[in-house]
Write a structure and sequence with these properties.
The chain is α/β, with parallel strands linked by helices and 331 residues long. The chain folds into 2 domains: 150 residues, HUPs (Rossmann fold), CATH 3.40.50.620; 139 residues, Beta Barrel (Elongation Factor Tu (Ef-tu), domain 3), CATH 2.40.30.30. 31% of the residues lie in helices and 25% in strands. The chain contains 10 helices and 14 strands. The strands form 3 sheets. A 6-stranded parallel β-sheet has the order 1-4-3-2-5-6. The protein has a 6-stranded antiparallel β-sheet with strand order 9-14-11-12-13-10. It has a two-stranded antiparallel ribbon with strand order 7-8. Helix 6 links the parallel strand 5 and strand 6. The chain is elongated, with a radius of gyration of 22 Å. The relative contact order is 0.12.
Length: 331
């Protein structure tokens, strides 16, 4: 997948089928839309192109930070797996916010992205104040000669599946429902960093640490059963590489929070004990997928009490994966 980011000066030479949106979370609605684009790719010989912005437009318009279910880097990895050929992360500012809808379609989607078909949901909006809609898109398709394809929204119990719906479920810790809406586990990915170095030598449970960026939308602080995806180079370093799979899967127990039992001003982190893995992952990219909420984050009276609880957490996770062995298949 070719990622075009940090510039408004680009030109895609191949004819494309284009969609526009934030693609925050890549939920079931997004997946339905991308499947339709794959059909058009095969039928018309087009390349799949996604247009999005490099930051949440609402944050620029309101001046207030906006959290996202999927960071830009996570979104890139997910869209590439879905077979997207081009991802345009267009720089957003107030000038772009004031672009009229027809100019947006003509200058960016048709001319720069070489769109021969545009796929959208029935509630799509684009251009200044979101004035562009499905009716305008259909009218412009007749005028400029591209195919406008409108995909009905994917629903859950008569409610449209959306990033807002997913955030609501994450906010109350309903990780299973959020995963159902996403069609895949909620994920925090990133580079493994050094932590307090207490996991192995002090607590007896070696762990790896991720520092989610400030814009990452997090579920409630606490302990979760997780699935850890490690790129082959990281697994190979520990002698764990299997076959030709691109990623290897391990069970895990993860704590999101500030480690209140540990003294000091600790940043929000994701600390994970990886079952059956004893390699060095510092500086490596991993993905932690959240499957089940076990308990809220707790401040213990001593490190010994914390150690005993971590032992119970590990037993909880091991039992979970004994009951769901299919979750540990490599991907």
């Amino acid at each position: 997948m070719q990622v075009i980011t940090g510039t408004r000066e680009f030109q895609i030479s191949e004819p494309t089928v284009v969609t526009i949106g934030k693609f925050d979370g890549r939920h079931k609605g997004h997946q339905k839309l991308l499947r339709k684009m794959q059909e058009l790719k095969e039928r018309l010989g087009l390349r799949i192109a996604v247009f999005t912005f490099d930051m949440a437009p609402m944050g620029v318009v309101t001046g207030h930070p906006v959290t996202v279910i999927t960071t830009n880097e996570e979104r890139r990895r997910k869209l590439e797996r879905m077979g997207v050929d081009y991802l345009v992360e267009y720089p957003f500012n107030r000038e772009i916010a004031h672009m009229d809808p027809e100019s947006f379609v003509k200058k960016i989607l048709l001319m720069q992205m070489n769109a021969k078909a545009i796929v959208a949901g029935p509630d799509c909006s684009f251009g200044y104040m979101g004035a562009g809609n499905v009716e305008l898109l259909r009218m412009l398709s007749d005028q400029y000669g591209f195919e406008a394809v409108i995909i009905e929204k994917e629903q859950d119990e008569h409610r449209d599946i959306s990033s807002t719906y997913v955030r609501e479920e994450l906010a109350i810790g309903n990780i299973e429902k959020a995963n159902e809406l996403l069609g895949e586990p909620y994920t925090i990915g990133g580079t493994v960093v050094h932590g307090n170095h207490l996991g192995g030598p002090v607590l007896g449970f070696p762990t790896v640490n991720l520092l989610p960026p400030p814009e990452k939308h997090l579920p409630p602080f606490g302990v979760y059963v997780t699935r850890v995806l490690i790129d082959e180079d990281g697994a190979a370093a520990a002698g764990e590489m299997t076959g030709e799979n691109h990623q290897n899967v391990f069970g895990g127990i993860s704590n999101i929070g500030r480690k209140p039992t540990i003294s000091g001003d600790n940043p929000v982190s994701v600390e994970t004990y990886i079952m059956g893995f004893d390699g060095n992952l510092y500086g490596k990219q991993i993905e932690v997928q959240f499957l089940n909420f076990e308990r809220p984050e707790t401040k213990f009276e001593s490190l010994e009490a914390l150690k005993e609880q971590i032992g119970r957490d590990r037993e909880y996770g091991e039992k979970y994966f004994r009951e769901h062995p299919e979750l540990l298949k490599n991907v």
